[in-house]
Amino acid sequence: MWDFGGNFNQVIWRFGSNLRFQNNWSTEARFDYVPLIVSNFVLRGGARMRLSPELIYTFKLESDIRKKFQVKGNFVHAHSSDETFRFSSGTIGLSLRPINALEFSLSSTYSSNNNNLQFVENVLVNDTRESIMARIKQRTLALSFRANYNLNPNLTLQYWAQPFNSNGTYTNFKMITNAEAMRFRDRFNTFESSQVDFDPDKDAYGFDYNHDDRADFSIKNPDFSLVQLRSNLVLRWEYTPGSELFLVWSQNFSERGNPDGSVFENLRQELFGSQLSNTYLIKLTYRFL
């Protein structure tokens, strides 16, 4: 892969297999080796950034789609060759179709992301733009429920809901010094503990860049925890061929949780004790020709 400036950015070797068995179950397995990764985007407008080579493993399994009950799952794991990056994600889904016109589905996804070079912010130091990165520990949980009911070919009722929580904590702050260096440790300087001071009143970190016991710049605490619920109930009526009426009821909730807490506990505490916002929409389309 090259960019429009002619820079050679990425090489991917991919090996994969797809199998369908006699009982109509299917699997997919894939292995990716990425020996070269140079990103134009990691530093958010800063220099091009070399990333460590990656190995990615993907596995998917799906039961017979003709059956009334179906199960599917997939697992993805990626890590860098120097163990500076590790990501895992697993999804399992169930679907039930008691009659041809009615279908229910439920899925759950959990992911874990540990990265020693996660972008935090670009700052000005002595009138020079510098990129700050850190080690991130991120955990994400998403649950999705969907129901579709075809009352007749022209009238359908659909419902979808997704509770979601993602937590991220940052440590081991760094300043990029040579973004395209071949060796991982040569791409940055790590701030010593004496150079970093956290102000709980301002919820911000101060950084002593030149070791004079004074903060040269500060950044807002990047730790986060987003707890969210989104849902939609949609009635669709095709009252004449090509023309449709939609009635929509949408519920939403978004709040901050505890970045150091469990994603399961954050969902339980925030969602079940919070008030949802309601939105009602009407959409009408008419086809003239």
Question: Topology, please?
Answer:
Elements (H helix, E strand, L loop, with lengths): L9 E11 L5 E14 L9 E3 L2 E9 L6 E12 L4 E15 L2 E24 L2 E25 L2 E22 L11 E3 L5 E4 L4 E4 L9 E4 L3 E17 L2 E14 L6 H9 L5 E8 L5
Antiparallel strand pairs: 1-2, 2-3, 2-4, 4-5, 5-6, 6-7, 7-8, 8-9, 9-10, 9-14, 11-12, 12-13, 14-15, 15-16
Kindly describe this structure.
- The chain has one domain (10-190, 223-284).
- 3% of the residues lie in helices and 65% in strands.
- It has one helix and 16 strands.
- The strands form two sheets. Strands 1, 2, 3, 4, 5, 6, 7, 8, 9, 10, 14, 15 and 16 form a 13-stranded antiparallel beta sheet that branches. Strands 11-12-13 form a three-stranded antiparallel beta sheet, with no helix packed on it.
- The model has no long low-confidence stretch (mean pLDDT 94).
Radius of gyration: 24 Å
SS strand fraction: over 45%
- Tally of strands: 16
Report the structural category.
mainly beta
Number of helices: 1
Q: Helix-strand pattern, N to C?
A: EEEEEEEEEEEEEEEHE
Terminal Cα separation, in Å? 45 Å
Number of structural domains: 1
Mean pLDDT: 94
Shape: globular
How many strands, which pairing sense, and closed or not: the largest β-sheet?
13 strands, antiparallel
Name the helicity range: under 10%
Indicate the low-confidence ranges by residue numbers: none
Oligomer: single chain
Question: What can be said about this structure in brief?
Answer:
The protein has 289 residues and is mainly beta. 3% of the residues lie in helices and 65% in strands.
